[in-house]
Amino acid sequence: MHKKASTIYDVARQAGVSVSTVSRVLNGRQSVDPGLRARVQQVMQELRFRPNRLAQNLYHHRSNLLGCVLPDITSPYFAQLFLELETYAFERGYTVFLGNTASDINLERTYLHTLAEQQVDGILLLGGRSNTCGVTQEDVTDLHELIERLPIVTVNGDLPGPVVVSSVRSDEADGARQILMHLRSQGHRHVAFLGGLSEVTSTVEKLRVYQELFPDAPAAWTQLTGLTLHAGKHALSQLLEAPTRPSAVVCVSDLVALGVLTQARTQGVSVPGELSVVGFDDIQLAEMAFPRLTSVSHNYALLARQAVDQLIAAIAGEATPRHVTIPTKLVIRDSVRSLAADQGKGGRGAARRPVSSSGPASD
Q: What integer pLDDT is reported at residue 342 of this predicted model?
């Protein structure tokens, strides 16, 4: 036979107090005498009393559930960010429901409305429409209808107008500037930009900084091939067919950079001996790559904490800043070779013919 669970009435009876007093203790009211509070809590422990969270949530019109909608949970970047979001939300007393859209805008719409119908208290929106250039009026109207029902915070993305209560973003433009300036400090004057998509805002931001710092780079040195491992492989293959090649490449993400490293080995290009490679995102694989990949960290833990904090504040009806920017951090590893000592010798800093894919290049 299963033992019957203790109730609030059992606690009140054994503690010698009213049910309303137990209720005030449960809800953290400060009006309860400290000694009385300690007695009630002691009885709760003795009876192994567990409050009915469903009833409490109904009373407070809360579910203590958050929705998180993202494009691709298999992406190391989104997986790492979601882990931080979920961990911190749990610390704040919330459970997170995940909606993985497989980069399908229609599925994103379905998840957003389904989560709202499931009575989540708020939604964290990553990627998708929040990271797409030229969001349609239909999308804005659709999301505006949602925010009238519950708050939405975008993470590393944004939407026009009052569609979201807060946009929490890592400073990707500054991260791109840090990594490009690092390449310049190491003597690289000929740098290519690999990967990304022209309709994705994070690509546009990084590309803008690249074009500002390397305005004379040949058009063939910009290869917007996508955001995957295959995109990195394809980008380097295309680059090596150009009349000249750079001494370094900056990749839109670490995943693209890993593809570049793979293709470099296939085509006999030594990294960093012949070509320096840098990534972006500082995913865990960056530390395990060979050579270990220089990258930019989003400061994931702080990014997640700020996003969850802003969403919970909005749920409580508090005012939240429309934009929150998280500083990024350059992480220097082994994939960049310094050419500073070679400057003035007419050697490594100059643009050259691509290496042949027929055999390995020497360091």
A: 65
What are the residues whose beta carbons fall under 8 Å from the beta carbon of 301, sequence distance 6 or more?
84, 88
Strands 166-170 and 323-326: parallel
Beta bridge partners of 227: none
Query: Torsions phi, psi of 216, nearest 5?
Result: -100, 10
Give residue 131's pLDDT band: very low, low, confident or very high (50, 70, 90).
very high
Distances (CA, A) of 196 to 191, 201, 218, 270: 16, 10, 17, 23
Most confident of 61-65, 161-165, 218-222: 218-222
Q: In Å, how far are 181, 266, 322, 333, 342 from 287, measured between CA atoms?
A: 21, 21, 34, 8, 28
Weakest-pLDDT range from 13-17, 178-182, 272-276 = 13-17
**Is 180:213 a contact under the CB 8 Å cutoff?**
yes
- Per the listing, tokens 């961990």 go with 87
Residue type, 285: L
Residues whose CB falls within 8 Å of the CB of residue 53, separated by 6 or more in sequence, listed in order: 64
The residue assigned the tokens 């389904």 is 114
Domains of the chain in sequence order: 8-51 (1.10.260.40), 64-171+299-328 (3.40.50.2300), 172-298+331-342 (3.40.50.2300)
Q: Give the 3-state secondary structure of residue 203.
A: helix
Please give the DSSP secondary-structure letter assigned to residue 155.
E
**For the chain, how are helix, strand and coil distributed in percent, rounded to 5?**
45, 15, 40
Q: What is the pLDDT of residues 233-283, one digit of tens each?
A: 999 999 999 999 999 999 999 999 999 999 999 999 999 999 999 999 999
pLDDT given at position 137: 78
Model confidence pLDDT, tens digit, residues 225-241: 999 999 999 999 999 99
Mean pLDDT of the chain: 88
Tokens 């296939």, residue located? 266
Contact 5, 20 (CB under 8 A): no
Helices (H), the chain: 8-15, 19-26, 34-47, 53-60, 76-91, 105-117, 137-147, 172-185, 201-213, 229-239, 254-266, 284-288, 300-315
Q: Are 285 and 300 in contact (CB under 8 A)?
A: no
Strand 248-251 relative to strand 166-170, pairing: unpaired
